[in-house]
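User: quick one
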Amino acid sequence: MEAQTPPASASLGAKSNDTKWRSFCKKAFQQRYLYLMSIPFVIWVFVFHYVPVWGWIMAFQNYRPGLPFFEQEWVGLKHFLDLFTDRYFYTVMRNTLAMSLMGLAVGFTLPIFFAIMLNELRGSLFKRTVQTVAYLPHFVSWVVVAGIVIKLLSIDRGAVNEWLLWLGIIDQPIPFMAKEKWFWWIVTAADAWKETGWNSIIFLAAIAGIDPELYEAARVDGAGRWRQIWHITLPGIRSVIFVLMILSIGNLISIGFEKQFLLSNPLVREYAEVLELYALNYGIGLARFSYGTAIGIFNSVISVTLLFIANGLFKRYANESVM
Amino acid sequence: MAGSKTWFSRSWPDRCFDLFNFMFMIFVLVITLYPFLHVLAISLNDSTDTVRGGIHIWPRQFTLANYEVIFQYDTLLTGFRNSVLRTIVGTALGLISASMLAFTLSRRDFQARKFISVFLALTLYFSGGLIPVYMLIRDLGLMNSFWVYVFPGMVNAFFVFVIRSYIDGLPYSLQESAKLDGANDFVIYWRIIMPLSKPVLATIALFIAVGQWNAWFDTYLYNGSARHLTTLQFELMKVLESTTTSGSSQDFRGQNMTEVMARVSPESVKMAITIVVTVPILLVYPFLQRYFVKGMTLGAVKS
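Assistant: Done. Structure below.
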C-alpha cells in the first residue's frame, strides 16, 4: 500500500533522498504482511493506552459530561489543591503507605526464606509437591481468597476462632473483620498466603544460577548449612533482590485496591480506604471525574518519582539499578 | 526422605536443619491446603448441621443439596456461561495479538520494529489511570457489552516481550528457508513459528485464561446493571458481600440470592459457589504447571 503513494517531497528532495524513499517503500511493500500483522494492534494500543493519558487534561478542567472539550471550564490546579486540603486524603495516604510497607516487608522476606528453604530440600518428589501446592493460591481470584479469609476469621464459628477457643487462648470469639486495627494485618497476611509461593519462583531461579563450586568450597572449609545460606546463597541473589526492590518501591503507592475493596466493610473503612479506592469512590461513585483524574495523576507522578529515587539510591550505594 | 543413605553419615546440625526444613514445609502445606479443604467440607455438609460448627476438613453429614440449590439459580448459570465465554474469546484474541506482534518484533529486518518496541514498552511504565480509562470505555460505547471483557486488555506488552524472547531463541534459518520456498510472512508465522512456540504460548494462554476467569472488577464497573452479562466472579462477590458484617450491599446486589439462601444457610451456599468458581482453575493448573515456571523466569530475566 505504501509503495503506491508517491512522496510529496520527492520533487524538491535530492536524488539520493528520492531513491532512499523508493527503496523504503519497496521494502515496506515486501513487508506488507508484517505491517498487516502489527499495525492493527499498534492502533489498538494507541487507543487503550495512549488516549487515556490525553484524558489527564480533564484534571485541569471542571469536567462536565455532555459539553464539548473546548467548552469545558479550565480551573488550573484547583483539584490538586482540593485534594491536598482534604483531611480524608491524609487518612487514605496513611492506609496506602502502611499496607504498602507491610506488604513490602513481608513480600520480600517470606518468599526469599521460602525459596532458600525449598532449595535446601533434599527429596525431589516432596519438593515438587510443596511447590505445586504453594503456587496454587496465586491462581485463585481475590474474590475467592477474600471469601475464604472472611469465612475463616468470622466471629460466627470461623475456623480461626474455633481453633483459638479450642486451644484455650481466648474465651470469647474475636470479631476480626470488625476491628479497624486488624485490617492492615489481615490484608498483609492474606497477601502473604496468596503470593509467597509464587513470588519465590524468581528467587528460586536466581539461586539455581549460583555456581555449585562455591558451596563445595564452603563445605570443605567446614561451613554449616546456615553459614552457606548466609555467605553464599543470599549474596548470590543480592542483585535480583535489589532490582525487585527498586521496582516495588516504584509501586509503593499504587498498591491496587482489589484486596481492600473485597476484604473491607464499613466498620473498618477508616483503615481500609486506599488511594485508588478513594479515586474510584470520588471519580466514578460521585461522578467527580476531574477530581478522580487528579488523584490518578498524583499517583502516577509519585510512582515515577519514587522509582527514580530508589533507582538512584541503589545505584549509588549498592551498584544495582534497573535503568 | 530421598537422602536416606547419607542420613547417618551427616552431622547433627545438618540433620537438625533438614528436620526443621521438613517440618517447615509440612507447615506450608497445611497452611495452604487447610482453607481450601475447609471450604470444600462445608460446601458438602448439610447446611443445618454446619451451623453447629466444628467442621474442619471433612464433612460430617455429607450432602450435595447445597450444589443442587445453587445450580437452580439462573443468574449463576448466566455468569458461568459468560465466564467461560470470556475466558475462551479473551485467551484466543490475546494469544493471537501477542504472538503476531511478537513475531513481527522478532524480525530484525522489519522497518517498524524499533518504533513498535518502544511504543509497546512505554505502556509498561505509565497508564492513564482508572477514570480516563473508564470514560474512554464509556465513550467507545463498550459499556453494557460483552466486548468490554476482552477488548481493553487484549494486547499486553509484557506477554508480547515474553513471546518475542522465545521466538528470538528459535533458529532464524528456518524462516529463511521457508522464504526461499516462497512462503509469505503470514505463512511463516502460522506454519512455522506458532507450532514451534507451543511451550511459551501455553504459558501465556494460562496467564490470560486465569486472568479472564478471575476478573470481576470490569463486570462491577461496566456491566454491573446488565444481568445477562454477569460473570461468575462477580456473582460470587455479590453473594459474599451481601452478608458481611453489615448491610453495605447496594440496591442491586444480592437480591435474587436472598430467596435462594432462605432454603439453605447462606454460609453453605457461599462455600458451594466458592468451590464452583475455584474448581476450573484447579483442573487446568497441574497440566500447565511445568510450562509457567519456565515462562515466568524467562519473562522476569528479560524485564
